[in-house]
Amino acid sequence: MKTIHTTITVALFCLLISCKETEKKPKSKVPDVSETSVTTEDLSLLDKCINAHGGINAWRSFTGLSYNLTEKGKTVYQLTNIKDRRAYLKSKDYEVGFDGKVAWAKPDASKVPGKSAAFYYNLDFYFIGVPFLLKDPGVIASEEGESVIKGKAYETLKITFGSEVGLTPEDVYYLYLNPETFRLEILTYSVSYFDKQNASINSAKVYSDYIEVQGLMMPTKMENFAWKDGELGESTNHVRLFSNIRFLDKITDESVFEALQGSTTEAIN
Questions:
Q1: Torsion sign (Cα): 132, 137, 138, 144
Q2: Which of 194, 187, 184, 190 is nearest to 202 (CA)?
Q3: Phi, psi dihedral angles at 42 (to 5 degrees)
Q4: Which residues pair with 217 in a beta bridge?
Q5: Which residue in 22, 40, 213, 234 has its CB near the most CB atoms, within 10 A?
Q6: Rounded to whole angstroms, how far apart are CA atoms 164 and 183?
Q7: Which pLDDT tens digit goes with each residue over 115-149?
């Protein structure tokens, strides 16, 4: 009996040691194809740009974006619902908004850029929201290769829009990206809102002074320059400065998007 007991004890001890060694050497996990990440080389240029700015998932995780925009000493507070693009803008001279159906201005749109609430309510949001907004339905991105501006090489993206996208599907954008960081540095564009037949690319925005805001890279300065035949000209002294940029998980008071009593309205088709 003693011999049997000793044998069992030794066997249990060996089994225990074996279990401990097994715990120390876990089996290698078989890769899950669904978890395999796409390499940088496989990404489109647009996706590389978006990732360089923080990624589309981070952008879409928020409900709202707010900031103060200062131009020529005048400041406008702007709030936009990222999900449905309702907007509210306020300066000492006017209030402008979009309630999902109509754009509105109070007392009227005579003091806003373009003298149109429909044109202005999302103007700055779109520029600061690039490149993330280029993932919207109907946006067409094509890679145009290398461009050289002022002796510096850039990767180039051309952006056009489907015929049913927004109020100005005829607009064209070119994004010039730093080839090392893939960050947006120059944006050229046409404006067809007021004259679709004579819309040409004659203006460029230079994006600079980026800061990280809640995991996303946001420009705090945009300066307009003349643009002709692929060449960056002189500054037009049109400088926009963005401050107090904040992404919102929730917009606590959505009534601000509703048209104020006494405001003028413009339908959004």
A1: positive
A2: 190
A3: -85, -15
A4: 212
A5: 213
A6: 29
A7: 999 999 999 999 999 999 999 998 999 999 999 99
